[in-house]
Design brief:
By secondary structure, the protein is mainly β. The protein has one domain. It has one helix and five strands; from the N terminus they run ββαβββ. β1 and β2 form a beta hairpin. The protein is globular. It starts with a strand and ends in a 16-residue tail after the last strand.
């Protein structure tokens, strides 16, 4: 099984996480795992990849995952 890998602020995710992701931009009441596309507004460059978990019960931006729930690899691109 291929494991998730970090390359600075970008992620290459494992197949299981890729299959579990919901596509599109999450709303405040979305449920599931998301990897939203981020753009640096000043430079136009792609932003930092962050995998988010949304429960749908609470209004909010979701919770950032530090580790892949499937392969166990560190996927925290903020703390580096």
């Amino acid at each position: 099984m291929r494991k998730c890998q970090k390359n600075k602020n970008k992620l290459t995710i494992c197949n299981t996480l890729a299959n579990a992701l919901q596509y599109g931009m999450p709303t405040k009441k979305s449920k599931g795992l998301y990897l939203p596309m981020r753009i640096n507004m000043k430079t136009g460059e792609p932003g930092t990849d962050i995998v988010q978990l949304h429960s749908g019960e609470f209004v909010g931006a979701g919770v950032m995952l530090n580790y892949c729930p499937f392969c166990g690899q560190d996927i925290d691109t903020i703390g580096d």
